[in-house]
Structures are given as structure tokens and as C-alpha cells.
Amino acid sequence: MSSSYGGTSAFDRLRARLDGRPHACEECGFVNDGEWEAATSGATVEYRRECPSCGTEQTRRYRL
After folding, report:
1. 56 vs 47: CA distance, rounded Å
2. pLDDT in tens, 24-44
């Protein structure tokens, strides 16, 4: 299966997809196109990033 988002694993491809989309902060409206950090518990994977303008943490959580 080919994908336009590069990466060696499904996690890498999902992070690349998230990184490729600018997102407006829900608190201040700042458009952030920074990278997401990933952490997994084995049952879920959570991607986080902090708004550089107001410091609000944005989170995307996926069940595995």
C-alpha cells in the first residue's frame, strides 16, 4: 500500500500527516504548523504539541 506521507511505520505516517496540516490554537487562534510529539501506552498513541503563542497543549489521541 503506497502513501503520499513518508515514514517507516504507521506512527511515522500519522505524525507526518499531522505535521503537514497547520492547526489554529483553540485558545488564542494562533496558527501553529509545528511538529507533534508522540507517546504510546500500548493501547493508545497520543500526539501533543504546545502553542508557541499562549502555551496551551494540543492533544490528539488514538486507540490502537
Report:
1. 14
2. 888 999 998 778 888 888 899
3-state secondary structure 1-58: CCCCCCCCCHHHHHHHHHHCCCEECCCCCCEECCCCEEEECCCEEEEEEECCCCCCEE
Could you tell me which residue, 16 or 21, shows the higher pLDDT? 16
Q: For residues 2 and 31, what is the distance between their CA atoms, to the nearest angstrom? A: 30
On whether the pTM is more than 0.70, the answer is no
Report the distance separating Cα 56 and Cα 64, nearest Å. 26
- The alpha-helical segments, DSSP class H, found in the chain are 10-19
H or E element at residue 49: strand 44-50
2: its cell numbers: 503506497
